[in-house]
């Protein structure tokens, strides 16, 4: 079938690579795509939130399935838009409806969902600027550190971990009164800090059945040893050694089953990926947050480990037939290192020429996924975002996977390129 994929990041390049590798895909279109997707699919210059133009394209190009990569069009209701049109009503579209997408679009909504469905999470309360004085009193009653979360979408940067009551109050005022994250922080969730090891669990669901995909650990902060500002993600490792059979069984029983059952019970339409951010505290899972799509850069580490046909997985979700899909996973380790523009996550330059990428996604034991890239008229690949390239190394263990990733990273250059040199070192220490 012809497939339309929405998005332009590293996650979408990884999706595109996996989709075109399936014999079930006749032609793949990516809207709007990047320089990497242009090499393996056909980019089309339609924005991810231009629902009318996307519908027109779907009908004109005999599209058999739509795959939504990023969260924004889901939160804005793209699935509902397609389903309200008689011409696209039956089209399989991978992503939840607008209400389901609120699981990521509103931290307050997801917290209430967890409470209703007895899913383990940090204790919290939600405040607006109208009750900021109550919020200050609530902060004073918390142990330090305390966590502030912008309620809405803030490009992965709306979570602050405050090391004093004063810092928490000042940060809260910036969020609620000074609109630090715009409309996203018109409501703020204040919650207890969970001290443990973080990991990401990914689930594919058709709203009734589910399949658990490979888990991953990502690295959020810009600096070595997890210092500095939060980013969209600087690297990832899959599998995660502390996510053993016993722990994952607890995750399934205490988190995944009650989440999927809760969505079904509350009549929240959910067809797509569920990304569960978890904290492992002494062997017990606690949910930090839900995301309604795959993670970036975790996708670049997770997808290479899916052995069974990926288009079949997507189509089984979209046609409510996931129960009959048999997922097969690779046993190897994947490690992803993200290369960013100098200055990111603050101000950074675009338009630098990138060298050393190679022509294929996969070369030897490494994969190169484009994120913030574009092509100029001469066919050169230029930087076009903060997170520019993700390199995934594959190996039989963490050490060899990291070696393969960093060998390729060393070949890719542009002016003021930056990457963390310590991705996976904590995992390496655990397994040694």
Count of domains: 3
> Order of strands across the biggest sheet?
12-15-18-23-20-19
State the fourth-level CATH superfamily of the largest domain.
ATP-grasp fold, B domain
CATH top level of the largest domain? Alpha Beta
> How many strands, what sense, and barrel or not for the largest sheet?
6 strands, antiparallel
Q: Count the helices. How many?
A: 14
- Sheet-strand content, in percent, reads 25-35%
Query: How many distinct beta strands?
Result: 23
CATH architecture descriptor text of the largest domain: 2-Layer Sandwich
Q: Structural class, judged by helices and strands?
A: alpha+beta
Distance between the termini: 46 Å
Q: What integer is the average pLDDT?
A: 95
Q: Do you know the CATH topology of the largest domain?
A: D-amino Acid Aminotransferase, Chain A, domain 1
Which stretches are poorly predicted, pLDDT < 50 over at least 5 residues? none
Q: What overall geometry do the principal axes of the alpha carbons give?
A: globular
Please give the share of residues in helix.
25-40%
Radius of gyration, taken over Cα atoms and rounded to an integer in Å: 21 Å
Catalytic activity: 5-phospho-beta-D-ribosylamine + glycine + ATP = N(1)-(5-phospho-beta-D-ribosyl)glycinamide + ADP + phosphate + H(+)
Domain ATP-grasp: 111-319
Pathway: Purine metabolism; IMP biosynthesis via de novo pathway; N(1)-(5-phospho-D-ribosyl)glycinamide from 5-phospho-alpha-D-ribose 1-diphosphate: step 2/2
Pfam family, one: GARS_N
